[in-house]
Design brief:
The chain is an alpha/beta fold and 302 residues long. It has a single domain, classed as Aldolase class I (TIM Barrel). Helix content is 46%, strand content 11%. The chain contains eleven helices and eight strands. The protein has an eight-stranded parallel beta sheet with strand order 7-6-5-4-3-2-1-8. Helix 1 crosses helix 9 and helix 8 runs parallel beside helix 9. The protein starts with 16 loop residues before the first helix and ends in a 12-residue tail after the last helix. The model has no long low-confidence stretch (mean pLDDT 93).
Length: 302
């Protein structure tokens, strides 16, 4: 039992997988047309964390990504900016300087992303470095091996320690749901993360398959809803990895609205972790406004 926490997180509710899949299937069939579709696509665009997390990342690549974040497609009026740029800690300073006063946040992965296989002091140091460099948000990974061994106290304490190291920066806790195996485990990990201090819970690193799926996201949204009912505290949600099509983003937004309500329909409480999604959304917005598809050559790749 996790001391001092109520309810007993080891006894998180079991998940009806068939029920979850059927509900997701119903919501996925919702049809959104014309002006409502354009508004939904713009909302989804404003919720994207544009991400580059490769070993070959350079300051120049990060600066280009920041420019794209601020100028998604200058030929289209009234486009929002994305919510954040997500980079490794060593490139936070470059991103912060490039974004200036744009209002776009800088998120940094930490805690030995993506594996999480490092001692606690290394994870805390990694987090503090990212924040000192200027990160507004920190995306940590939980120790999946410890979780799968049933060492829930360890996972809870680790998240709480990283949250403390974040200071004023928001903490997104990555569950890496593709390695948690069952929806019951996804629910339990979601509960532990929220009670340990997560500001957001996030599906995936994008480095493991499957990454974000709608059933997994539904389970996490329901955990957020119950946590809110129990505590009055709102927690954000971020599906990440594998979401590359505009149609998918609208399906996710329908699911958020139906499960959590309008209060969560803002970048403050819902994000997409995606590298390829922005261009497909831009493509669809142009189609809705002009009746024609524009070549992808007119949109920057990064």
């Amino acid at each position: 039992m996790i001391t001092g926490i109520s309810p007993d997180l080891i006894n998180s509710p079991t998940i009806d997988q068939i029920g979850i899949e059927e509900r997701v299937a119903r919501l996925s069939r919702r049809s959104i047309k014309k002006a409502a579709k354009v508004n939904g696509l713009k909302l989804a665009l404003s919720m994207i964390d544009l991400t580059t997390l490769e070993g070959k990342d350079t300051p120049g690549k990060v600066k280009q990504l920041c420019y794209k974040a601020m100028h998604l497609h200058d030929a289209l009026p009234d486009l929002p900016t994305v919510a954040a740029i997500c980079v490794y800690p060593s490139l936070v300073r470059e991103a912060k300087q490039a974004l200036g006063n744009s209002g776009i946040n800088v998120a940094s992965v930490a805690t030995a992303f993506p594996s999480g296989q490092a001692p606690m002091d290394v994870k805390i140091s990694d987090t503090r470095f990212a924040v000192e460099e200027g990160a507004d948000e920190v995306d940590m990974v939980i120790s999946r091996g410890k979780f799968l061994k049933g060492e829930y106290n360890f996972v809870f304490d680790e998240i709480a320690a990283v949250k403390e190291a974040c200071g004023k920066a928001h903490l997104k806790v990555i569950l890496e749901t593709g390695e948690l195996i069952t929806l019951d485990n996804v629910r339990k990990a979601s509960d532990i993360a929220m009670y340990a201090g997560a500001d957001f819970i996030k599906t995936s690193t994008g480095k493991v398959q499957p990454a974000a799926t709608m059933p997994v996201t539904m389970v996490m949204l329901e955990a957020i809803r119950e946590f809110y009912y129990n505590t009055g505290k709102m927690i954000g949600m971020k599906p990440a990895g594998g979401i590359s099509k505009a149609k998918q983003s609208l399906q996710y937004l329908v699911m958020v609205k139906e499960t959590l309500g309008n209060a969560w329909m803002t970048p403050e409480w819902f994000r997409f972790g995606a590298s390829r999604l922005a261009n497909d959304i831009l493509l669809q917005i142009v189609k809705e406004q002009t009746g024609n598809y524009q070549s992808l050559d007119y949109f920057s790749n990064d």
